[in-house]
Amino acid sequence: MHIDLHTHSTASDGTDTPAELVRNAAEAGLDVIALTDHDTVRGHAEAIAALPEGLTLVTGAELSCRIDGVGLHMLAYLFDPDEPELARERELVRDDRVPRAQTMVRKLQALGVPVEWEQVARIAGDGSVGRPHIATALVELGVVETVSDAFTPEWLANGGRAYAEKHELDPFDAIRLVKAAGGVTVFAHPLAVKRGEVVPEASIARFAAAGLDGIEVDHMDHDEPTRARLRGLAKELGLLVTGSSDYHGSRKTVRLGEYTTDPEIYGEITRRATGAFPVPGAGGPRPA
Fold first, then answer.
1. pLDDT, tens digit, 9 for 90 and up, residues 228-279
2. φ/ψ (deg, to 5) at 148
3. Cα atoms in the Cβ-side hemisphere of radius 13 Å centred on 50
4. Element (DSSP H or E) covering residue 88
5. What is the spatial distance between Cα 254 and Cα 182, in angstroms, rounded to a whole number?
6. Can you state the angle between helices 117-124 and 97-110, rounded to 10 degrees?
7. Which among 26, 29, 87, 185 has the fewest CB atoms less than 10 Å away?
8. pTM above 0.85, yes or no
9. What is the pLDDT of residue 285?
């Protein structure tokens, strides 16, 4: 089985619609894909309706969190999307995305970048506006060459010159809320230092003690020594180890299924979840 547990669609900051995403996943030879848009489940219905035969969808979200001034992302799988407390927190984070993005646009303008809010809003479309949309605007303007080049201290990285904070969950609250909604939590790209400051390993141990299920190890932003370090930490803390593409369509160079999760780990995630269940595809024939 080929299992990719971290992808994004136009419901947040990817470039594939949810329907395009699941079709592309089938064409890439995946057996299981998780749709984990930022702080939203809005793309799930479209993905399920278009899900090809032979492809299974894991519903989820990537929750924006912050602790001790450091931002981090928590992948949440197979939770009840209607659980009211978690739904309310997701809504608070989403509602803060527009004013936060507008603040970053103003900061960029103050730095002499001729970016306009209308340009960022056009790029975001119906998705939850975020830094990748602003980064795409910087690419269009020729300020940086790639989206990744915008995530530096010079521009949009955590604490960067044009960075602005938004409402984010305390990670302990995120773990508690997802568990209460019957879901499973995995700390996304925990040591992706190229993105900015990361939480210390002592914090990961505290998350594990609070009920964290796993950590994402095989990821494009982790080099081999970092992956080895994280595998050792996961073994020490009794955490599941996942691998995922963090696919954003054409916004990033990573391919669907470039990094994957072991089928046994996937099986354990599904066994632990009680809020929702993986959805087997029946929406159409699997691409040849």
1. 999 999 999 999 999 999 999 998 889 999 999 999 999 999 999 999 999 9
2. -60, -35
3. 18
4. helix 84-95
5. 31
6. 140
7. 29
8. yes
9. 52
